[in-house]
Specification:
single chain; mainly alpha
Length: about 260
């Protein structure tokens, strides 16, 4: 049921790491250029990363056939989305999006958000997640989807640790924790929709805002951060667990 990758899992993991290192190095190299130039460059590089991912798998699909949307599955994914919408409202994301349309740097802000969404999804929900799935398949691991989602989300969170060089440790640690939770949700959405573009769209909406909205001047309380993102992580993990069960039942029926 899961589509086979064109590349071996190790090759996907290596390419993901190499692309991330190149991305960071080139952003440091272009540090003194204008924001608009950097936003265009990041968008081009993110599209290259997406192409590499699609070459490694042959498509953006995760399975040959979509999972069945059972009542229990719909309940848990609805909880995930409801809490995510609440998080968007709490962190003023709708206001940030509105501000973009009245901002003098509309295209710069939009390109930065779009490039981040495409690059990080192609990397983490694309190359890294597919690599862990391939490794789990090779090892005949049970609950492969859930494990691979958690591994790729932990890696997604770890990549945000680079912000420690430019922001306060407390706020960056909150970013890392929230990235792990949101990363798990985005994997669930990728698997359920059987594509990479829905997670890219959600990621884009979450990031879409003026550059000033990403300053490190203030941070949320740890209580609020832990509450919201723990719920998202647990509900997303439960959703992935149900998908794993459905996959195992399908494989059992197929062998009968």
């Amino acid at each position: 049921m899961i589509k086979l990758n064109r590349w071996q899992w190790g090759r996907q993991l290596q390419w993901g790491i190499v692309l991330f290192v190149i991305f960071i190095f080139l952003n440091l190299f272009f540090f003194d250029t204008t924001d608009y130039f950097k936003s265009v460059f990041n968008l081009v590089f993110s599209l290259i990363t997406l192409i590499v991912f699609m070459i490694s798998t042959g498509s953006t699909k995760f399975t040959e056939k979509r999972f069945k949307l059972t009542k229990q599955l719909l309940i848990w994914i609805s909880i995930c989305l409801a809490v995510t919408v609440s998080e968007m409202l709490i962190y003023d994301i709708p206001d940030n999006i509105y501000t973009v349309f009245t901002h003098s740097q509309f295209w710069t802000n939009t390109f930065f958000a779009l490039s981040a969404a495409i690059f990080e999804e192609s990397l983490c929900r694309g190359l890294f997640f597919s690599a862990f799935i391939g490794l789990g398949t090779y090892r005949s691991s049970k609950f492969n989807i859930t494990k691979s989602a958690i591994y790729s989300s932990l890696l997604f969170g770890a990549l945000h640790s680079i912000n420690l060089f430019s922001g306060p440790a407390t706020i960056v640690l909150q970013q890392i924790f929230s990235a792990i939770a949101i990363g798990t949700l985005l994997v669930a959405i990728r698997v359920i929709t059987n594509g990479l573009f829905p997670p890219i769209l959600i990621h884009f909406i979450l990031d879409w805002g003026p550059l000033t909205s990403y300053s490190y001047d203030t941070g949320s309380s740890w209580g609020l951060t832990l509450t919201i993102f723990t719920i998202i992580f647990l509900a997303s993990t439960k959703t992935l667990f149900l998908l794993d069960q459905q996959l195992q039942n399908f494989q059992i029926d197929k062998t009968k």
